[in-house]
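Supplementary Methods, section 5.1.

A reviewer requested that the exact input to the structure prediction be made available. We therefore reproduce it here, unchanged from the version used in the analyses.
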Amino acid sequence: MTTVALVGSTGSIGTQAEDVLLAHPDRFEVVAIGSRRSTAVLARQAVSLRPKIVAVADAEAASGLAPLLPPGTELRAGPDALASIATDADVVVNGVVGFAGLPVTLAALVAGRRLALANKESLIAAGPVVQKVRATPGAEIVPVDSEHCAVHQCLRAGRGEVRRLLLTASGGPFRTRAAADLASVTIDEALAHPTWAMGPKITVDSSTLMNKGLEVIEAHELFGTPYDAIEVVVHPQSVVHSMVEFTDGSTMAQLSMPDMRLPIAYALSYPDRSPVAFGAIDWASLGRLDFAPPDPGTFRCLALAYEAGRLGGTSPAVLNAANEVAVDAFLNRRLRWADIPAVIEDCLGALPGTKADTVDVVLEADRTARARALGAVERRSTAA
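The structure derived from this sequence is encoded token-by-token as follows.
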């Protein structure tokens, strides 16, 4: 039986992973779960999944959790608690949101575990550092993002003959609108994703196409594909999750209905496939599949991500940090949706990238970029 540590268990990825694990009681044993502070959900999951260890990063939030756990469950609390459970399972699911997932990624790979990676930010911000520990014997990354899971599956048909990767994007809720129509976007509008149910941060990223930009950098890091050979195509139905074009003109695509449980089950079961069908297609009623190029003028975040990726070094860390600050400011009504790319552009222009060869360098780039982005947000809030 495969042992699993589920980190970020209370978020969107974590709760869907819980569904997958409960659907395979004879395949997986959950040995640890953890989240930053959602103790009520952690307590419920501890009863449902029966892990040996429950971890919570917020020590203060953990104070009321112990009495709610099943007898014999070990409780770990504090800033290192989540990374501590990423070392003793066969598979570690990293569903932590944002840059905070980096310690979990590094801990799992250093321990030589399979990392089912849903936390793209850690690979994007610290790509060179992650690549070093990825060489640890036994360590491997199987992506949980639907697009990269799709590419991973398509590459099983061949790697040396690849011409380009095509990452599909739903286009988000604003794909048919021009820049002039987006000056007064509301939070509710940005969170109204047409095909996926996700957390607020990634949903806003989808609305700006930054999520796709981050995925371009992630694809470069995961598969070693040059940026000139990674393209984005808008596909509003979210049925084709990505494609690989080979040198002979053949294109392999992975298709399923939008259901994150499929890539989660794939990452948990790899190299086998799950016997439970998630996202199966009813071909008789599927209807049409549409594709179009993205609009870089309206959705500037995509171009900024390509720019940061090509610059390399700490530039992706700056991009990621500035975006996290800008999105948080938007969700807290301190920044307009249309100003999110302006904050990111300000940071990329002011903070030239340096070599990202250690964790400390990446952490400093993240800290500096957040401070710069907060200032940029404040200037725009004051001007408004």
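The mean pLDDT is 94. These observations are discussed further in the main text.
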